[in-house]
What does this fold into?
Amino acid sequence: MNTKGPEIRVGTGFDVHAYDSGSPLRLAGLDWPGEPGLSGHSDGDAVCHAVVDALLSAAGLGDIGGLVGVDEPGTEGAASTGFVRIALERLAAEGWRPVNVSVQIVGERPKFAPRREEAQRSMSEIVGAPVSLGATTTDHLGFTGRGEGLAAIATALILRGG
It folds into this structure.
């Protein structure tokens, strides 16, 4: 019997990838036709990568590098939504479940607002809890402002025993 009551924790994740015009864009679990992709060993989905790090950080379970390394078979070109599912399995094994996740995308493209609801539904379904997504630019400052890449910052709230 747990006499302490439920445990609640918060974690933060961050990911960044350069644009790669030779690959398709996969972001927040969605395909974005006509947009340059993101470089990376997997599909480069910075939203999913930041979510994985936020969930693992909240539970004290490390980060995405310890979960799925670039030298592991099957990770090259892999869909990052699968990495989120693996992180959720790891959390569940420790008795944790997500309560909600918030993600802020930083970049000049793609135009996110027209697909925000679709992306939130997709990510919420994957995570099994509400996922809110926002996007901003840096007013042409820094690498994201110059259109060289995209960043994502995620915060996850998790619960155990409640």
Notes: The beta strands are 7-27, 30-38, 96-106, 131-136, 149-160. The chain has five helices and five strands. Helices lie at 46-59, 64-67, 81-93, 116-127, 142-145. The first helix runs from residue 46 to 59.
